[in-house]
Design goal:
CATH topology of the largest domain: set domain protein methyltransferase, domain 1
Shape: globular
CATH superfamily of the largest domain: set domain protein methyltransferase, domain 1
Oligomer: single chain
Radius of gyration: 25 Å
Amino acid sequence: MKFNTAILLGSLATGNVAAFSRQSYTTTKLSNSVSTTMATALHAMTVDIDESTPRDVWTMDEYMVNCGVQRADGFQLYDSSEETGASAPGMDFSVLTTTDLPAESPVLCVPYELILSSEEIRAGELKGLVEPAEEMLEILGVPEKQFAMFHLFLKILMEYEKGEDSPWFPWLNSLPRTFKTGASMTPYCFECLPPLVSALASEERVKFVNFSNCLQQVRFLSSETKNNKELAKWAYNIVYTRAFGNNDGTGKEEDNKRIVPMADMFNHATDTEVQISFDDDGNCYAYTTRDVPAGSPLRMSYGCPTNPSYLFATYGFLDESSPATFCKIMGIQPTQELRNIGLDFSRMLFYKDTGDITEEVWDVLLYTILEDLEDDDRQTQTTFYNACMQGDLDTKNSIHQQYFPLTSRALQIHVNSFLHELDELNNKANTKDINEHPRIPIILEHNAFVKETFLRVKTNLDSMVAQMA
């Protein structure tokens, strides 16, 4: 099938989608009715954000279709709570296709009227109202690139206050209540995680605290909303687990961030089935990236497939489809030279299934070892760096062979030390009550996933070192 955008947009002028008209974004309308909206919101039926509340996905599904969302034949939402280990039915949902879909087939189209756009929100209903909060963000050291997410954060809270009067209420009521992100963890949880993912999770927590504190500078939200930490945490998690930008192909993501109801139902995978794009009018499209047989899931990528630590901290799930993980070598003082030869979380990898070690791990480790040796070795460091940059594999491999006893032993010590650290972290996690720290189980799963990878690497390294003896 092909989506008929003209028919789609024409249908938005009538019926249930009248509430999504551009007029609803005007500053004048919002400014003149702030007090009325706040008074109404306190009495309106709002979304129950208690973690035990099931998600009403089926009402949202019907509502979105009535609002002009178009879907391919075979597109189907289903309750995946049992297969994901959720505490009860109605907690987790996924998308699959019940029909064969050829590559580059249209899967979903969501009209721009339904999409929450940070750029449009800031220029429209927040214009002239959010500057004090933005000034506070600057004082707190929040980078400007995060402001777009803050605008979406405010939008979620505004629509929450409107309750059933919000045109987005069916979508809000379909969203998760439980999150296992860094923002949702307790300080003790960070102490049970390896250094990198602990730091990333802590960063998420700090971002949430900054956003929450800046709510006091927002006049158009009720005091009840601004002082409700659990509500703020829920809104923050909704934004950071469901918003994405539009990559223009240059590798630089635009400042505008969007949340696209229905498209936000696609789960993450390394080997994806769908890809998201936007047209010039702001409509969102999902197309298949390959041939997808009936009965298959429809998934997109949330980020770098070889950085499961980022996905864990930001989205709160363990990406077991990730082929590799960062080697966890921390404490190296970054220089431009080290970055040039591979000092990056997404390049210094240990492979999960094979225990293979990427070239960048060996290169960075050798470069740092040569830094600490005698003057002759420092000259060798320069020669090695130039060989890396010029693609001189013969020279590079010759130097690797010369110093292999040092690099392999250093890496072996790191792996053994890290495995010991994981055991200590797990012992620490197991001493706590999961009712008080409900994210402990997924932390233990994460640590076990990393340990399995490191054990395979250890087997390979032990064999290498034994052959040199």
